[in-house]
Amino acid sequence: MKIFYELGRYWIFLAGMFTRPENFSIYRKQVMLEMDAIGINSVGIVSLVSIFMGAVITLQTAYNLINPLVPLWAVGLVVRDSIIIEFSPTIIMLVLAGKVGSSIASEIGTMRVTEQIDALEIMGINSTSYLVIPKMLAAIFITPFIVLISMFVGIAGGWVVGELTGVVPSLDYITGLQSEFLPFNVFFAMVKTVVFAFIITTVSSYHGYYTSGGALEVGKSSTRAVVFSSILILIFDYILTQLILI
Amino acid sequence: MIQVQNISKGFYGKLVLKNVTNTFEEGKVNLIIGGSGSGKTVLMKCMVGLYEVDEGAIEYDGRDFSAMTKLERKSIRREIGMLFQGSALFDSMTVEENVMFPLTMLSKMDEEEKRDRANFCLQRVNLDNANNLFPAEISGGMKKRVAIARAIAMKPKYLFCDEPNSGLDPKTSIVIDELIKEITYEFQMTTVINTHDMNSVLMMGDNIIFIYKGEKFWSGSSKDILNSGNEQLENFVFASKVMQDLRRHLKN
Ligand SMILES: Nc1ncnc2c1ncn2[C@@H]1O[C@H](COP(=O)(O)OP(=O)(O)O)[C@@H](O)[C@H]1O
Ligand SMILES: [Mg+2]
Questions:
Q1: Range of the domain at B91
Q2: Residues of chain A predicted below pLDDT 50
Q3: Separation of B208 CA from ligand 2 center, angstroms?
Q4: Residue of B215 and A72 predicted with greater confidence
């Protein structure tokens, strides 16, 4: 029953956010700051995760493809498509759900328990749109770039490890990368990324916004934000894959 | 002048405010007093619309606030300044940006005018040289001053203060009380203050209501409060050693 209550309240939260939002000029600076916080500050961790992800996928694919009928360059192709379609958008956005989601929820939760949100409301400002829209726009704009970086770094990681271990020589790997490339897959990944960015920012803001109590509750909201964002990302990953690819 | 008529408010079936009626007068310091948990904050938040009342009406100079839509309330919201219990300064902004914030969001002033107005307000609360500090870098008393400066930035007609001296030492409390009193008279605002501090009550209570368990038990001025003859109010007023001594002194 609780889940329906939460869903209903989330829906009302979103509706309130889009009714009479503040003037866009006020948001511009906020959006820039948020892009920095959400995007630029995540490049390091995203690159790190992507390198290892690419390396592991390459080794595992090579290990599973020991078959005289399958050419070695197929590894490059499989690695590329796994990274582009699934690993970069989903895994990286799950990482961001942890990093960005918890920070959004604790920021907004702290504002709630210290009455900063009340202070906004008193001034007649729509606090949900003022707080959430810049984060949402920034995330929707910047995460596709983050995911593109992750794709490049991941594929490069696979290439390096294939060459270093001698499991997949460069030439084969690169031949694989160039075979049967479908630009649509990148587009599909971007669609997923944008949907996940919306989920992370709005769900985390929602959990922060409805915090009540003190510091302890802010911590709990932050945990809930990560759990719910992650679960929703996985559910929407499945839904979008079924809708678009099949 | 703010008139509150028969307002009631409950949370999850538990009635917190019961049928409160009162008039808060213009150009005066109106006090809401009562013990912790008696419903002072809830009453104040109902008055400004942060909580919706279950029953009753709230009028700002004859304008029925409680019957308005969110959009209609915006014009009255601009006439309200509020000082929150924990100051509620925006952590991510400097002192000056905090005071300029309502001007940025609600007025059409240019950067220069906003800065001038912010500095005027900061000077009014005797806070110089703190413009570029962040809330985390200043003391509790300074935070209150900044919050007052932010509350008066838009030249409000109505000023609400929730426990303005909670968490302050006695000396700073007096300074903050004096400041609120001065600006109330200076700008002829309708000021409403929540407090349980008897010192503030005696010092600035032009018009006082005593809330006990969500009900209005007594109203009057600081002159009458020491001999109200109301049992709950006497328990509240003479709770501290100092006040008991004062009573003994007055009797002799
Ligand atoms: N948002 C809320 N939800 C549920 N109960 C609340 C809420 N706000 C206040 N209360 C309850 O209302 C009563 C009065 O609280 P309050 O007005 O904060 O007291 P005080 O006089 O100390 O300011 C308390 O019992 C409190 O638990
Ligand atoms: Mg209170």
A1: 86-155
A2: none
A3: 16
A4: B215
Task: Write the residue with the smallest CA distance to atom 2 of ligand 1.
Answer: B11
Query: Contact B88/A121, CB-based, under 8 Å?
Result: no
Taking CB atoms and a 6 Å cutoff, what residues make up the pocket around ligand 1? B 11, 16, 34, 36-42
Would you put residue B21 in left (φ > 0), alpha (ψ -120 to 50) or beta?
Answer: beta
Range of the domain at A49: 26-245
The total domain count for chain A is 1
Query: How many domains are there within chain B?
Result: 2
Distance (Å, rounded) from C-alpha A78 to C-alpha A75? 5
B68 CB-contact burial (10 Å; exposed 0-12 / middle 13-18 / buried 19+)? middle
Interface confidence: ipTM more than 0.95: no
Stated as kind and residue range, the H or E segment containing B122 is helix B111-124
Is it the case that residue B119 has pLDDT exceeding 90? yes
| Set of chain B residues whose Cβ sits within 8 Å of the Cβ of A133 | none
Chain A nearest C-alpha distance from B19 (Å): 24
pLDDT score for B9: 96
Best residue among B41, B162, B192, B197 to mutate for probing ligand 1, ranked by most atoms within 8 Å of CB: B41
Q: How far is CA A178 from CA A70, A84, A174, B227, in A?
A: 17, 14, 6, 93
Please report the pLDDT score of residue B135 as a whole number. 96
Nearest to A150 by CA among A50, A41, A78: A50
One domain for residues B97 and B216: no
Atom of ligand 1 nearest to the CA of B38: 21
Same domain, B181 and B222: yes
Q: Are strands B80-83 and B158-162 parallel, antiparallel or unpaired?
A: parallel
Using most ligand atoms within 8 A of CB, pick from B42, B194, B209 the residue to mutate for ligand 1. Answer: B42
- pTM score of the predicted model: 0.90
Give me the pLDDT at residue B75, please. Answer: 87
The 3-class SS string of A130-172 reads: HHHHHHHHHHHHHHHHHHHHHHHHHHHHHHHHHHHHCCCCHHH
DSSP H or E run through B72? helix B70-77
CA dist A152 to A1, A146, A185, A197, A212, Å?
A: 44, 10, 14, 20, 42
pLDDT digits 0-9 by tens, B3-28: 999 999 999 989 999 999 999 999 99
Give the nearest ligand 1 atom to B194 CA: 23
- SS3 state at B64: strand
- Determine whether the interchain pair A110/B71 forms a contact, defined as Cβ–Cβ distance below 8 Å: no
